[in-house]
Every structure is written in structure tokens, then in C-alpha cells.
Design goal:
By secondary structure, the chain is mainly beta. It is globular and about 55 Å long. The termini are far apart. Strand 20 and strand 21 form a beta hairpin. The strands form eight sheets. Strands 4, 5, 6, 7 and 8 form a five-stranded antiparallel β-sheet that branches. It has three helices and 29 strands. The chain has two domains: about 45 residues, no CATH class; about 375 residues, Neuraminidase, CATH 2.120.10.30. Bound molecules: calcium ion (2 copies).
């Protein structure tokens, strides 16, 4: 065997070890293990098989460490990029600058199957909806998971790895409307596709009808990874869809920079006031009427914006874009933005040139914050700006984490700069964060739990 093939073998063995120990991130499975995870309809079945698209992108001699170091209490050496720090449009009053709190996680529910998202129907019923990656939306009621799911579409979801039922969004005034939106991967005519669909409740608000599906938007996925998967309604009432770059590694099709391609973008469509079956284009989308650009695009240059959220108080948008080999990033878009930002990928990874290297960063919107893929940090999971009432010390803090290391950080603007702090070594597989109607923030543990952020 050549040295190269020995290294590859060593890497595959290592990757299998990673799989058995830490599972598989819905956001970044293949960046972690460099192998696709196959297993239709079952999150428990993780059968790695080599794939032509799964080109190892990390030297086999430098595998990510798989055991979070308990002694690692220091903030990872993160290099702020002063030139990349946008002036926040809405900063907390600088004089109100409480000390960083310590946080902890309180278990709300366990026994879930590969949960990846949650939503609060907000009608004061004490229910929360939790998305299971294989294709079910479960109802959590007073700490117990209902035996009957709100919806089961495992028959049309292709799971798992970075595929599956990946995201949920409830429209404004959900209780009156009686429908919700899902983002999932499916297969049609032998092609992997992302589907954004609307599902309606039955007369029973605890049961949605799988046959009520209205497909809003469909696009092909050239590779099994980087399918994005989030959905969020903006303060403008439009639906924002994070579309990954299509997959493989390094964006081989250069899709994220191609404004004629739907992949590698943040999309913005009107699903509520336009055509009720599908969608219309908001007239003020940045590329409306331009040639060689899709009118659905709100922003571009994204790699895999797995999780993103709007600050419910300010309307600012935080996008966590999963990195390639070196840098995980948080992009900040002020509520005043009129769209059209180029977040850099694949020209840049974080604030660093990726392809080409060296590169011209003119016109790029560089991250508000980035952290290196060191100390087991490997795949960023975006969270929420805390706007709850229970923990005043967290007010205005953007909480986010890393799927692999389980670390949770806080990021907040202070005097026009970003301040970042490690808040917890959770050792959880943080697949997502959630926010309830009261503004309390939750952590979704891919291993099967839903937890609430608390200040002990
Ligand atoms: Ca893909
Ligand atoms: Ca970027």
C-alpha cells in the first residue's frame, strides 16, 4: 500500500470511530466523517459507504479529536476580525453591560429520535413541536411526548446524515391559520431534492394531515450533504430559506457565488400573501429584474447555513454558516439591510481566503464572528438572541453552539464591537436551538433530548 492509501485507511477507521461515538451531524456529517450516512427512514441505521462525492478534505493525519476535553475551560482562541465587524444596527445600551452569566441546561424532554428542530405554536396550550429527522413532528406536552405525532411523513422523507426532515416554521398567526411549513429532503425520479411544503391541520389541532401537503418550492440536490434545512419567518412576514451550496466539499460547482443558481443562498419568498398554493417574489428582493440572477435570492455566498434566526426584538438576522476545514462563522445582517449581501463562500471561509487564495475580498460581507476548527470544534449550530424574561443577564445575548464539541457561546454587541464568551461545555450534540413564545431558548440534542437554557 502506498503511504497515501494507508493514510486513507487510517482515516476511514477513525471516521467509523467518530460515527460510533458522536453520531452524525445533520449539518455537517460528511465534513466530520467524510462519508455519507445511508439509512432511509431510520436514524439508528448508520451505514457508512464510500461515495464519489465524499472527498476527504481534511488530511488523514489530522483527524478531529473526538473527545471534548473536560479541562478545556478557556475560551478558544478566537481571532476577531475588526475589519469584518459590522456596526450593529441595534445595540443594547452600552451602559447596560452585565457580567456574562454562567448557564446550564435543564432537560425538558428525552427519548426523542434524532431531533433537529422545534417550534412553539404559541397558543398557550403548553405544547411544543419537536422535529424528528426521520420525518415526524412530535408534540411535547408538559414534559411528555404524545404517542401520536402531529405529523408523520417518513414515507416521503429521505434520511439521514445531512438529509431528512430538517426544519419547521410556523407562520405568523399560526393558531388562526392552521398550517405550517417543513423543509425536508426527498427523492424524485432518482434525484435527491429539497422540498419546502405546507401542511394543514385536521379539525384536531393535535393532528396534521399528511395528504394535505402543498409543495411550495423544490430544488435538486447534486450531493447528499449541505442541504441547509432551516426555515424562518422574518419580521417582514416573508419566509427565509437557507439553501446550502449543494454539497461535496469546497463547492465544486462554485454555486454559492453564482446568482443564477439557487444553491448557496438565503432565499426570501412570500408564501402568505401571494399565491396561496406556492409563493410569490417580494417586489423588493435585491435581484428582481436582473439578468443571470434568481429573484428568490436574498443573500448569497453561503456554504451551509444550517441554522439562522431573527432577533425577535430588533429584526436583525444571525446566520451560522458551517465551515469547510478551518473556520466556523456567524454572519450578522442588520434589520435595516435591503439584501444582496455576498457572504463570501467559496472565495472565503470565515474571513480567510479559501478559493482562490489569495483572494479579493472587495464587496464581501465578512463574518461578525468566527472560530477555528480546533479543540474539537467542527460544525457551528446557530441559535437565538435571548429575549426571554427569566434570565435578565442573558438579555440581548446571541446563543450559539458547536455540534461536535457541544460548546455553547454567547455573542453580543458592546460599544460597536462583538464580544464573545464561552458559556458552557455541554457535551451535547447540538443539532439546533429553539425559542418558545416567551422568548426562552432551548437546545436540541441530536442524541434525543430537548433542554432549556437556564442561569443557575
Ligand atoms: Ca446537497
Ligand atoms: Ca462567509
Amino acid at each position: 500500500m502506498t503511504t497515501k492509501s494507508i493514510r486513507l485507511m487510517a482515516f476511514i477507521l477513525f471516521a467509523l470511530a467518530v460515527l460510533s461515538l458522536s453520531g452524525c451531524s445533520p449539518a455537517e456529517a460528511e465534513e466530520i466523517i467524510h462519508l455519507p450516512v445511508v439509512g432511509k427512514g431510520s436514524s439508528a441505521t448508520v451505514t457508512p459507504t464510500p461515495s464519489p462525492s465524499a472527498t476527504p478534505t481534511v488530511p488523514a493525519t489530522e483527524p478531529p479529536t473526538i473527545t471534548p476535553t473536560a479541562s478545556s475551560t478557556a475560551t478558544p482562541s478566537v481571532t476577531p476580525t475588526p475589519s469584518a465587524t459590522p456596526a450593529p444596527s441595534a445595540t443594547p445600551t452600552p451602559t447596560v453591560n452585565p457580567a456574562w452569566p454562567t448557564i446550564a441546561l435543564a432537560t425538558v424532554a428525552s427519548g426523542l429520535s434524532s431531533p433537529v428542530d422545534m417550534a412553539d405554536p404559541g397558543e398557550g396550550s403548553g405544547r411544543l413541536f419537536v422535529v424528528e429527522q426521520t420525518g415526524r413532528v412530535r408534540i411535547l406536552r408538559n414534559g411528555q411526548i404524545d404517542a401520536t405525532p402531529l405529523l408523520d411523513i417518513t414515507d416521503r422523507v429521505r434520511c439521514c446524515g445531512e438529509r431528512g426532515l430538517l426544519g419547521i416554521a410556523l407562520p405568523p398567526n399560526y393558531a388562526q391559520k392552521g398550517y405550517f411549513y417543513l423543509n425536508y429532503t426527498t427523492e424524485a425520479l432518482g434525484k435527491l431534492q429539497t422540498r419546502i411544503s405546507r401542511f394543514h391541520l385536521t379539525a384536531d389541532t393535535d393532528i396534521a394531515d399528511p395528504a394535505s401537503e402543498q409543495i411550495v418550492l423544490v430544488y435538486d440536490q447534486p450531493f447528499s450533504n449541505h442541504n441547509g434545512g432551516g426555515l424562518a419567518f422574518g419580521p417582514d412576514g416573508y419566509l427565509y430559506i437557507g439553501a446550502g451550496d449543494g454539497g461535496s466539499g469546497g463547492d465544486p460547482g462554485n454555486r454559492a457565488q453564482n446568482r443564477a443558481d439557487i444553491l448557496g443562498k438565503m432565499l426570501r419568498i412570500d408564501v402568505e400573501t401571494g399565491n396561496p398554493a406556492t409563493y410569490t417574489i417580494p417586489a423588493d428582493n435585491p435581484f428582481v429584474g436582473q439578468t443571470n440572477a434568481l429573484p428568490e435570492i436574498w443573500a448569497y455566498g453561503l456554504r451551509n447555513p444550517w441554522r439562522y434566526s431573527f432577533d425577535r426584538q430588533t429584526g436583525d438576522l444571525f446566520i451560522a454558516d458551517v465551515g469547510q476545514n478551518a473556520w466556523e462563522e456567524i454572519d450578522f445582517q442588520p434589520a435595516s439591510s435591503s439584501g444582496g449581501e455576498n457572504y463570501g463562500w467559496r472565495i472565503t471561509e470565515g474571513s480567510h481566503c479559501y478559493n482562490p487564495d489569495p483572494c479579493d475580498k472587495t464587496g464581501l460581507t465578512l463574518p461578525a464572528w468566527e472560530y477555528p476548527q480546533t479543540d474539537n470544534n467542527r460544525s457551528v449550530t446557530g441559535g437565538f438572541v435571548y429575549r426571554g424574561a427569566a434570565w435578565p443577564a442573558l438579555q440581548g445575548v446571541y446563543l450559539y453552539g458547536d455540534y461536535v464539541s457541544g460548546r455553547i457561546w454567547g455573542l453580543r454587541p458592546v460599544d460597536g464591537r462583538w464580544e464573545n464568551r464561552l458559556l458552557l461545555e455541554s457535551n451535547r450534540n447540538i443539532s439546533s436551538f429553539g425559542q418558545d413564545a416567551a422568548g426562552e431558548v432551548y437546545v436540541v440534542d441530536h442524541a434525543g433530548a430537548l433542554l432549556r437554557v437556564v442561569v443557575p
